[in-house]
Amino acid sequence: MFKILDRYIISECWLPFIAGCGIVTGVWLGADQIRDAFKLLANSNADFSIALSIIFLRLPEVLVYTIPVGTFWACFLVFNRLSNDSELIAMRAGGISLVRCAIPAMGFGLIMCLMSFFISEIVVPWTQPLAKRIEFAATHSAQFDPKMKNFIYFERTTEKRIGKGKLKRVLYVERFFSESNLLKNVMIIDFENDQANKLHFAQTAKWNARTGELLLNNGLTYEIPNGEVENTHIASFKSIGIPAGKSMKDLTTNLSKYKDSNLWDIYKLIKNHEILKIETENLPKLKLKFHEKIAYPFSCIVLALTATPLGVLARRSRTNWGYVQTGLLIFMYYASQSSFSSFGESGKIPVMLAAWLPNLILGLIGAISLYRKSRFSN
Q1: Strand pairing of 213-223 and 195-208?
Q2: Which of 131, 151, 174, 229 is 20 to 30 A from 18 (CA-CA)?
Q3: CA-wise closest residue to 74 among 115, 127, 133, 44
Q4: Can you give the residue ranges of every domain in the chain?
């Protein structure tokens, strides 16, 4: 049951949270989204209402990243005020420890965590594609057509674990148009007994769902018997069909939209990779995105834990280094997120560790700081 102390601290957090989150969101929108919206107005015949609609639709995506900052700022300011007004001293005199005072702050972080998760999973997957369609239609007066560049597809023989079977085919596509199901500048390498035996180059290709083939147009075929390059035979073609599994179309269509997908859709896409025993260069990005969709909202709780001891002033202190430490910690947190995400996408560290390591580091700093400042000898 919530006690008076819990309700008091949580209620005090709302106003600084709105102020902090609003300032950061305004700066974020002004630096990126508003600039793009006015560039759209300058370079097209779009109305001002269209620009405002795009800004409004992109707002939820920005909130997913700014809500944790607002939570951190709110908890820091609340405990800074409680410390300045000697309310923390009164609480300690009444037998309430700083650890007990930090529990409602973390409860506020939990509320923000659920709010951020709701926006990320329910609101953003609906608003982001709509904003892209409106922007594209306003700029080109055409239907939105998502593209994916430099797509690489690996197909392997059946094995229990993904990526462990023998390589059957490598497909490289310079550009993939998911709406029209068209692939441009295609290269296919077929393998037999771990040796390349055929190479296909085509200007365009299209998936034929009826025959289960990939139709290649205007290209060349290189046959390499027994992997001996000296015996290569070259033949040109206007149109040929290459047998290909259903998985290629499903994956390319869904991969072009994964950035706007929710957690469940990304999970199903990862499972499709494992069931169909294939891999693409986007697979590490998918796994990283899956863990980040949980780690980002959870950072609200970690940031609330870290901000609580930072706001507590030392006795008879005329300076407050908490503001400096706050700025440094926020910078360190987002810098570590960017760097670890890059390492995770490249495969240098496990994607799960890349997504959660910033939270673990910051949570450890907050727990140690809270323990030190909770001692009465401080």
Answers
A1: antiparallel
A2: 131
A3: 115
A4: 4-141+287-373, 147-256
